[in-house]
Amino acid sequence: MTITTEFSISLRDPTLLDCRGLINGEWRHANNQKTFPVSEPATGSVLHPCADFGHEEFVQAINVANIGYKSFYNVMKFPSYLQLIVEAKFCHSTVAIILSLENGKTLAEAKEK
Fold first, then answer.
1. Which Gene3D superfamilies does the annotation name (predicted)?
2. 3-state secondary structure of 12
3. Whose CA is closest to 11, among 66, 75, 93, 86?
4. For a surface tag, which of 8, 65, 98, 110 has the fewest beta carbons within 10 Å of its beta carbon?
C-alpha cells in the first residue's frame, strides 16, 4: 500500500494500517459506517479514514477487553511472550512510519515507542 500525501511512502506491511476497529477479536467497521480522517500534523494531509465507533460499540469493546485481559493474563506463558516479541520486531519499522505520520513524531522517536 502506498500512502499518498505530498510524498509517497511504502509500508513493509500495509495490513498494519487499517481503518477498522478491533472488538472481541474481530476487525469491524462502525455500525453506522461513519469514519473520521486521520491527518498528518505537519501538512494536514489526510492519511486514511478511521472507524468512528459510537457509545454502544465503545462499551462493548471495553467489556470484552476487560474479560480478554483477565484470561490472557492467566494464560500468557514464556513461549507466547517470545512469539509476541518476534512479531513486534517484524512490524517495528512499519509501525514507526505510521506513528511518525499520524503523530508528527520524528522517525527516530517513533522507533523508540
1. Aldehyde Dehydrogenase, Chain A, domain 1
2. coil
3. 93
4. 8
